[in-house]
Amino acid sequence: MDSHVYEGIQQAVAAGIGRPSLALSIFTLVILAAISVVAILVKAYVNKKAENLATKSDFAALQEQLAENTRLTEGIKQEFSRQSTLWQSKL
Q: In terms of residue numbers, what domain contains 65?
């Protein structure tokens, strides 16, 4: 390597060229912290939305089951009522 190039590199390193400044490092840390906070908030939002969607889906399924049980119960009540009426008329 040429001695002039070597001296130029030594002077640049001594002057701080090639080293990131403290302000740049702090700025980078602030940006990374902001990105982390936003990522955490987005994750929490998506998780809550997914939970709400699952709850709605479960609620709809439970409503359908309740309606089916109600229909079956009413059918059984009607059948017992009919049977009771037939037995009473025979007596």
A: 22-90
